Amino acid sequence: MLANLTPFLLHWAITALALWVASHLFKGIRFGSTSALVVSALLLGLANAVVRPLLVVLTLPLTLLSFGLFLLVINALMLLLVAKLVDGFKVDGFWTAFWASLFISLLSLVLGAFVLGGSPDFTIETSPAPGSVWL
Q: For residue 115, what pLDDT is reported?
């Protein structure tokens, strides 16, 4: 069980750190408390896992026409969604969310590679491997 919990906690910590750094770099992003930051990181991960794929499928023609650049808009919308849901987390506008989400994505990528040592073996299992049983 800890083997599945560790990657989740690492992703959560990396997202929280990236959000915290972004709040110091962008004037339009503010956290009222540490708990708002922690909840925002958790909710952003959940939104990226559940809502974002639905938006990607629904906007696929627009994404293809824009050569994938519309995915940046979807990332900004995920950040705005989390800001609306979490009390104590404020994002001033779309463009702040756009540039901050781009920064958060890149910083999370770099931090993830640094923390994990660039290991491609780091994955979160969502289904059992073929021929194995999940309990």
A: 79
pLDDT band of 124, cuts 50, 70, 90: low
Q: Which two tokens stand for residue 26?
A: 């962008």
User: Is the model's pTM score more than 0.85?
Assistant: no
> Looking at residue 91, what DSSP letter applies?
E
Measured distance CA(45)–CA(67) in Å, rounded = 25
Q: Are 124 and 11 within 8 A, CB to CB?
A: yes
CA distance linking residue 25 with residue 102, whole number of Å: 13
Collapsing DSSP to helix, strand or coil, 122 comes out as: coil
Phi, psi of 112, rounded to the nearest 5 degrees: -60, -40
Q: What letter would DSSP give residue 33? A: S
- The closest of 49, 99, 105, 98 to 76, measured between CA atoms, is 98
Q: Which of 81, 70, 72 is nearest to 104 (CA)?
A: 72
How would you label 64-81 residue by residue, b for 16+ Cβ within 10 Å and e otherwise?
eeeeeebbebbbbbbbbb
